[in-house]
Amino acid sequence: MFTGRTMINPILNIIFDIISASPHLKVHELAEQLKVQKALPELDKDSHKDLFKINFLIMNGLYQLQNELFDSHHLVHISALDIYIERMQPDQDTINADNQNLPSHTDPLKSYYLDWNNYDTSKEEIEALLNGFWQRYLSCDKGAGCMQSREALIKKWQLPSAYDLPTLQKKWRRLALSCHPDRGGNNLEFNQIKLEYEQLKMAL
Fold it and tell me: How far apart are CA 64 and CA 87, in angstroms?
């Protein structure tokens, strides 16, 4: 299992097997399949830290696969609502540079999850993350990278390009209800949706 900062993800191959065999998955569905295969033992005695570490390993694995599989002409699409592998067409010599699934795409979340120094986040830091700390990673400085992420989220959330706050809030409430832990949803998916909502709100 993961020890120290060996930078080896113990569930990387299992994640690959699962997403290779499934056309589309949500983050919580991937987590459930990992649990069924007993690939996720208890990682921390503290329940909040355990959940965080599970989410970290899953996202770290997905982003590692995104980098690795690109060399074999595959794109790994990653979002809380849809994870899948897409084979690039033989005649697809170039891909839109704005594509958020390219290894070269600047993504604050990806940078965070690929940094193993963040694996041993303290309980206090986790609480800070849930209370808005992620805004440091998702803040928009109106640069090109930010606009690419914004456009990708607009498409993912099925929002109009010129969305306003009431429209965003209405969409957020619908998504929040569908994946809220108290309504049969999953913490991992709910927190991811919450982070995306904050990014979209800050980009207004």
Answer: 17
Q: What are phi and psi of 37, to 5 degrees?
A: -85, 5
Alpha helices, DSSP H only, in the chain? 12-21, 27-36, 47-70, 108-113, 123-128, 135-138, 144-157, 165-179, 187-202
Q: Which amino acid is at 133?
A: F
Q: What pLDDT, on the 0 to 100 scale, is given for residue 80?
A: 72
- In sequence order, the β-bridge partners of residue 77 are 84
| 87: CB partners within 8 A, 6+ apart | 73, 74
Pick from 49, 101, 45: which is nearest to 73 by CA? 101
The whole-angstrom separation of Cα 165 and Cα 118 is 32
Would you say the pTM of this structure is higher than 0.70? no
CB atoms within 10 A of CB 183: 10
pLDDT at 145: 44
Name 117's Cβ contacts closer than 8 Å, sequence gap at least 6.
Answer: 5
Query: Quick one: CA dihedral 104, 59, 126, 166, positive or negative?
Result: positive
Q: Is 75 helix (H, G, I), strand (E, B) or coil?
A: strand
pLDDT in the model for residue 149: 67
φ, ψ (nearest 5 deg) of residue 122: -75, 165
The enclosing H or E element of 76 equals strand 74-77
- 28-49 exposure pattern, b = at least 16 Cβ within 10 A, e = fewer: bbbbebbeeeebbeebeeeeeb
